[in-house]
Specification:
188 residues, SH3 type barrels, OB fold (Dihydrolipoamide Acetyltransferase, E2P), six-stranded antiparallel beta sheet, five-stranded antiparallel beta sheet, flat
Length: 188
């Protein structure tokens, strides 16, 4: 059992018959009355975010999680199939448990969050940065780097649309931040 003093971002707790990840927290000591902890919790099962206030010193049921390396194999309907790189077991994961499924590519290594007590997958984290090839974009203008104007580009095998600078052309490889879905730089 953990207490509110042990709260940290990313911590997983069992609350209201569900598993939640702590997204944000704030210890509040008002001038009058008892201290409390204001939290923002994200449900692992359905992705809903809720706010809750715990009194200071309250007991929390912490869920022990492990971060394991898995390799993405293929998509099977609305399920994604991953393979454990240590024991070669395959596991099917629902799409809503993956933070950025549109950036998955065959053979990509991902970090899978597993409930260590029940051996149940709680989520999949795609790498923060991926390199994709631009499959289509309008022709660029050489030397047009002075303005910060962006144009749409279709990238990768999943046809993800990303906003890129005007000088990026079809066939070039670009680095993309999967957390913000934004262009970072060209890759040679």
């Amino acid at each position: 059992m953990a207490t509110t003093a042990d709260i940290r971002n990313g911590m997983m707790i069992r609350f209201n018959h569900d598993i939640f990840q702590i997204v944000e927290f704030l210890h509040v000591k008002p001038g009058k009355g008892a201290a409390f902890v204001r939290t923002k919790l994200k449900s692992v099962t359905n992705g809903k975010v809720l706010e809750n206030t715990f009194p200071s010193g309250a007991k929390l049921d912490e869920v022990r999680v492990e971060h394991r390396k898995f390799q993405y194999l293929y998509r099977d309907g609305d399920q994604y199939v991953f393979q454990d790189l240590e024991n070669w077991e395959q596991v099917n994961v629902d799409e809503h448990l993956i933070n950025a499924p549109e950036f998955l590519d065959d053979g990509m290594e991902c970090e899978v969050i597993v409930n260590a007590d029940e051996e149940k997958v709680l989520g999949v984290e795609v790498p923060s940065f991926v390199v994709l090839e631009v499959t289509y974009t309008e022709p660029g203008l050489k030397g047009d780097t002075a303005t910060n104007t962006l144009k749409p580009a279709i990238c990768g095998p999943n046809n993800v649309e990303i906003k890129v600078p005007l000088f990026v052309d079809t066939g070039e490889k670009i680095r993309i931040d999967t957390r913000t879905r934004s262009y970072m730089e060209r890759v040679k």
